[in-house]
Automatic annotation (TrEMBL):
Organism of this sequence: Vibrio parahaemolyticus
Keyword Repeat included in the entry's annotation: no
Keyword line: DNA-binding, Transcription, Transcription regulation
Name assigned to this protein: MarR family transcriptional regulator
SMART domains, alphabetized: HTH_MARR (SM00347)
GO terms of molecular function: DNA binding; DNA-binding transcription factor activity
Family annotation (InterPro entries): HTH_MarR-typ, Tscrpt_reg_MarR-type_CS, WH-like_DNA-bd_sf, WH_DNA-bd_sf
Keyword Transcription regulation carried by entry: yes
One Pfam short name: MarR_2
Domain of life per record: Bacteria
The HTH marR-type domain, residue ranges: 1-90
UniProt-listed PANTHER family: TRANSCRIPTIONAL REGULATOR, MARR, TRANSCRIPTIONAL REPRESSOR OF EMRAB OPERON
Length: 98
């Protein structure tokens, strides 16, 4: 359970965008929204049982795809890739600061 405001902040999106998405998810019975007991202005978002099941299926599928994508890459190569990506991220942040 999380408030709409906290969820928007965690996802780094505008609250209005989140509200539209939540409306669609609610119509599909994947989430519910209810008033917060402590702050009647706030709305609490919860996954329904259907939403939880879909999340589990998505996580399993993501793991399958990840395993397949990385199946031909050994640990040393993955470590090297990680270092390269860190350097790219560092360079990108440096260039934004200029």
């Amino acid at each position: 359970n999380i408030s709409q405001k906290q969820l928007a902040e965690a996802l780094e999106i505008e609250l209005a965008s989140l509200m539209r998405t939540l409306k669609l998810l609610e119509e599909q019975s994947l989430v519910t929204r209810r008033c917060c007991e402590h702050d009647k202005r706030a709305r609490i978002v919860s996954l329904t049982d259907e939403g939880k099941e879909l999340l589990i299926q998505m996580e399993e599928r993501i793991l399958q795809v990840r395993r397949k994508l990385l199946s031909e890459i050994n640990d040393q190569e993955l470590k090297k890739l990680g270092l390269i990506l860190e350097q790219i991220a560092h360079n990108a942040l440096d260039s934004l600061g200029e």
